[in-house]
């Protein structure tokens, strides 16, 4: 909550994640410098096939290391990067780096590993996105089916026709599409069928509540998995923190799992040595 002193006394604004405006201005300046100096890193979180327990993919997660050894969470700076437009150069770097790393890890593995890359709303709406991605695919010679872009429900429901067109353009490139944080937005199930998506990613809030003694949490998760399977989509659960959650999800027919119980996001070098 930011308190702004005006003529009529105080007004209160609810701001994103309670970042005060002074903090935000500082963050903006530092973000500009971070882009210039290429201070970002990509971490990767493994994704497992819940039946075979084999590694089948990884999600690229942006990290911004600080001088004191700490990291600023993307949850904090992505919205600032969005507002300033810095997300476009950052996003390009993410896609390029993720493709390079995917080619590297696939060169040393038998089974293909897919890469999931998050797109923010401004990237998704950027008319130049398609040609940028097409360029990276061509110049790297990666099989586009190895790339999955994650977009959230709210990005789809805002301007539905435009969103559908953007998705169709992406699919035309041969890449896959996932709906991230599924269940937290307000998309109608009727729309879901019309969007050319390959994957549903159940939001981690549903998984966090999941335990064997909680019938309602189990019903919700079962219903979402049933929906995904019924629509012939790949179903991914994120935020798996216990063995019990992993087993329940596997029994319920969820295809792929991701979470701290399996592995935390890690630097690429560490991923190369993982499983
Ligand atoms: P997301 O795409 O839904 O990513 C999942 C988040 O959950 C990640 O947080 C991940 O580290 C965290 N997570 C994974 N497993 C567990 C678990 O078992 N328990 C809990 N509590 N958390 C888990 P992270 O890396 O802080 O990213 C937060 C959000 O920031 C992401 O949510 C995504 O929306 C955004 N983001 C991250 N990287 C990028 C990026 O490269 N580009 C864009 N546009 N957005 C990104
Ligand atoms: Mg994601
Ligand atoms: Mg998510
Ligand atoms: Mg999330």
TrEMBL record:
Q: Where is the EAL domain?
A: 24-275
Q: Which domain of life is it from?
A: Bacteria
Spell out the coiled coil positions from the record: none
Indicate what this protein is called per its UniProt record.
GGDEF domain-containing protein
The portion of the full protein included here is 333 to 607 of 607
């Amino acid at each position: 909550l930011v308190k702004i002193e005006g003529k009529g006394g105080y007004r209160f604004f609810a701001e994103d994640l309670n970042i005060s405006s002074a903090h935000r201005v500082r963050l903006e300046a530092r973000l500009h410098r971070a882009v210039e100096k290429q201070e970002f890193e990509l971490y990767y979180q493994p994704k497992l096939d819940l039946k075979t327990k084999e590694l089948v993919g990884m999600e690229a997660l942006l990290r911004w290391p600080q001088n004191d050894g700490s990291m600023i969470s993307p949850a904090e700076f992505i919205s600032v990067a969005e507002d300033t437009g810095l997300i476009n150069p950052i996003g390009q770097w993410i896609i390029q780096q993720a493709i390079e790393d995917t080619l590297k890890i696939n060169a040393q593995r038998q089974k293909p590993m897919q890469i999931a890359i998050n797109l923010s709303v401004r990237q998704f709406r950027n008319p130049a996105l398609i040609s940028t991605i097409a360029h990276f695919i061509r110049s790297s010679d990666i099989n586009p089916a190895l790339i999955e872009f994650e977009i959230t429900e709210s990005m789809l429901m805002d301007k539905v026709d435009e969103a559908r067109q953007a998705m169709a353009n992406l699919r035309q490139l041969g890449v896959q599409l996932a709906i991230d944080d599924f269940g937290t937005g307000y998309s109608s199930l009727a729309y879901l069928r019309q969007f050319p998506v390959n994957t549903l990613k159940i939001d981690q809030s549903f998984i966090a509540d999941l335990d064997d003694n909680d019938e309602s949490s189990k019903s919700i998760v079962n219903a979402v998995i049933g929906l995904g399977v019924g629509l012939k989509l790949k179903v991914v659960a994120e935020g798996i923190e216990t063995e019990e959650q992993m087993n329940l999800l596997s029994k319920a027919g969820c295809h792929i799992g991701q979470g701290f119980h399996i592995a935390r996001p890690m630097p690429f070098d560490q991923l190369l040595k993982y499983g």
